[in-house]
Amino acid sequence: VEIHLVEITPALATALDLLTAALDERGSDIVQNLRRLTRDAAAAVPTYLGLSLIISRNDPGFTVTTLADAVVDDDIGSSLKLLLRSLDTGPRPAVALVLYAGTPGAFVDLAADLAWLRGRSRADVTLDQHLEVPRGTDGAARLRRSSEINQATGVLVGLGYTPQEAHQHLDARAADDETDTYSVARLILDELIPADFRRRSTSVRPAAP
Amino acid sequence: MEFTEDVHGIPDAPQTYDESGTDAADLHAAIADLAGLVAGSLGLPELLAEVATFAVHAIPGADGAGVTLLRIDGTGSRVAALASSAPFVAEIDEIQYHVLNEGPCITAALERRTVRSGSLGGEKMWPHFGPRVGRLGVHSALSLPLLLPDQVVGAINVYAHGKDVFDDHATALGELFARPAAVAVHNAQVLAQAITLTAQLQTALSTRPVIDQAIGLLRGRTGRSAEDAFAQLRTISQTEHRKLADVAQHLVDEAVRRARARHRPI
Known about the structure:
The structure holds two protein chains of two kinds.
Chain A: H1 10-23, H2 30-44, E1 48-56, E2 62-67, E3 78-84, E4 94-101, H3 108-118, E5 123-127, H4 139-158, H5 163-176, H6 181-190, H7 197-204
Helix pairs in contact in A: 1-4, 4-5, 4-6, 5-6
Chain B: H1 17-37, H2 44-58, E1 64-73, E2 76-84, H3 87-100, H4 104-111, E3 115-117, H5 129-134, E4 140-147, E5 152-160, H6 168-222, H7 226-240, H8 244-263
Antiparallel strand pairs in B: 1-2, 1-5, 3-4, 4-5
């Protein structure tokens, strides 16, 4: 079967560029590194179909998936999940890398290598337990929404709230308006028009925190 | 990874039974060492250095070896990682990759074939590299491409001080060693890339929220766009030689401190 690797979509690339900018490291490029990993995983595994990077944290959860053209779950015959735990003790989210291939058993050798290379104490390697691609976790959209919610939080911090109070305000207003937090954040950011910012900002500020 | 390669393909070079048996045993031992590498939880640079050392053991006559991972694209090759078994190999690698961009590893990787020379000083394949390395007292070179089914990932370079050290027999042993070595280093490279990407995502996801809050803070104060506010943050970061996330955190903390001061009862 000829496999055509799908390029990272423009929406995903834009979202990952947000993260590259946050890295603040000259020469670092998350999109480029994801492309390299995709390409090299394809060279390591026959019938490679794609990968998911699943970052587990409370807010926001984040999954990046790149798949070969037109792949559906039924095409996935084997998987390898590698849990990459933080090496430091800081509060950093855990990351799981899941590779997909079309042929059962395709990851047996790679799994053995990765498990030993990483040392059993620091990695969990799971075979063939993830034959479905994570759904409903559009990483690009979640990153963009999270970015704008945090910007709105910053606006409220400038108006006298702590970040925690700002988040509470966004949630409370979303509940009052029967909408979601992102929509309230967008409304606050949309009202930031230089000419009348001061006048309009009073409308987004509730009673003093 | 299983290393099941046998050595039945070793050619009948003119040697005694004892020599051939010793070489085969050395190759077996070196390949077993490759398999044992994985038990050490090595990083990619350490693994490459170990592979270089095992190559010296596996290939008769070798005085030193280097392993290079290359990224090859339409514009040529670029060193992704390298390691050597001895300082003189590191010196040769410096000449090959950084000074001249010419030499046996580059030829082996680009042409996906084993190359060797028994007299580097007069070697026509590398008119600049050969004489320069010959003047260092290194006269024999054997370069083995590290091949996967669909791509070349780099090369093993083996050197000796004497002339015409690497014959067909040594070349065959080297090629047998290079096959599992290619798989080992490539898998290690995949893992290294995954770890790098993981660390980057972890860091970025941890710092992006406060950077966005600082962007919002600046937007609220100035009415600027998000892009302009980010550029302002970056300018502060560069001017003050502080990390972007630290600048952002300081801005947010200062705003919170001022807000609390205003609310504090007198």
